[in-house]
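pinned: reference chain
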Amino acid sequence: MKISLIFTPSELNRNFSECRNRDKHMGHIPPSSLLSVAAVLEKEGVEVQLIDMVAEGLSYEDTLRRIKEFSPVMLGFTLATYGFHSVMDWIKKFKKDTQLPILAGGAHAIIYPDETMTHPDIDYLILGEADYPLPKFINCFKNGLNFDGMKSFGYRKNGQVIIDKAIENIKDIDNVPFPSLHLIKNELYGSILSQRKNYTALMSSRGCPYRCTFCDQKKIPYRMRSPKSFVEEVKRNYTQFGIKDFDVWDSTFTANKKRVMEICELLEKEKMNINWYIRAR
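pinned: its structure tokens
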């Protein structure tokens, strides 16, 4: 079974040239959500193709040719609210020209599942984290089983939209497979903060312990990876992919001071020549 995951350009305003010029010099962040989804799929025995149209500067025609050469049974996309309509434009084009079912997920899906499924080009929708619903979906899809009773999932049955909004979140995120960085060209990525290639973004926790009214992270339970698990991923990325710049995308990396110190001590012991950056409150 093969699935193609596609990270598409999503412009806030296609006519705003200053935005395009700014974004050109901001660098490219790896599509972390799709890399994590790819890892879950590969663990289930799925052969995955990940196409980053943004970092590789691919045209629609180039991307479509790669998809057809790979011959997947399904296309996957991630949805963010700020670029939702732009991504939907891409989805419509790819579906029209491939006639393949569309699997979608992302932050927008969990906030607006009903509205998202009003778009007929989306066949399947993962709500929230993929760790639990995605393997169940793959098993059902491969074996021709129905999706009745699947939690954190939306689909269509006999023309009717069915969405189960009971979100399932994995408790021990140390058990989550590391993102599938072998599927992308890591030398293409960097940010305005990064100093060296190769570069990647990663997370040592999910959710946030705070509940700021303006933030979607308040909907996600806060869970931290163990210092050992986090440093193991850093070491893996450093040794296997030559990554020297790490951008930690936690909502608040410094929420637990003791854990931060343990991470720093373990990193020092590994004596890796790396730079790393965090987000804090």
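why pinned: The radius of gyration is 19 Å. The chain has a mean pLDDT of 92.
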